[in-house]
Amino acid sequence: MKITISTLSTDDKELWQRLYRGYADFYQMPMTQQTLDQVWAWIFAPSPRLFALIAKDENHNGVGLMHYREMVSPLRGKPVGFLDDLYVVPDSRGSGVVDKLFDRLQLEAQQQNWPYVRWITADDNYRGRAVYDRLADKTQWVTYQLPVS
After folding, report:
1. Three-class secondary structure of residue 27 per DSSP
2. In the chain, what are the domain boundaries?
3. Buried-state track 51-82, b at ≥16 Cβ within 10 A, e below 16
4. What is the pLDDT of residues 22-78, one digit of tens each?
5. CA-CA distance, 96 to 69, in Å (whole number)?
6. Tens digit of pLDDT for each residue in 6-29?
7. Any idea of the CA torsion for 113, 137, 82, 146, to the nearest 10 degrees?
8. Cα gap 64→86, rounded to integer Å
9. Which of 1, 44, 45, 92 is deepest in the core (most CB within 10 A)?
10. Architecture of 4-135 per CATH?
């Protein structure tokens, strides 16, 4: 399978929506058109700095996506990268799509002068974690979330 990775363009909206709905389904998160429209707007706005990559097969079908952003690291006094979303359609898993997405993320991070890109994943995402263990260093940090009511 021939895979191309590119930054998301406005022509990719339908492909992106299909992929992002698949990602939300994977994590059993409800997805509304309002949320899709908001994320789409963020990707093409100058701020916040949210970036998106899309993977396409030789027939120009969307087979994967990656959302990442810049965040500041006060201890480092500089921005770093944060990977928010990564999704590969089930039929394309194991075909190298995720490796190509991470290769491109590495280039994008270098262009932004980020010293690293960090991300979190679900504890039970065993397949994803096997890939992450191969490509990156697992940190010592445990993630918490404070609900705001």
Report:
1. coil
2. 4-135
3. bbbbbbbeeeebbbbbbbbbeeeeeeeebbbb
4. 999 999 999 999 999 999 999 999 988 999 999 999 999 999 999 999 999 999 999
5. 23
6. 999 999 999 999 999 999 999 999
7. -140
8. 7
9. 92
10. 3-Layer(aba) Sandwich (3.40)
Query: Which segments within the chain are labelled E, that is strand?
Result: 4-7, 50-56, 62-73, 78-88, 117-119
Question: DSSP secondary-structure letter at 45?
Answer: S
**In terms of C-beta density within 10 A (0-12 exposed, 13-18 middle, 19 or more buried), how is residue 8 classed?**
buried
Separation between Cα atoms, residue 64 and residue 95, nearest integer Å: 11
Tokens 């201890």: give the residue.
75
Which two structure tokens, joined as six digits, stand for 27? 């994590």
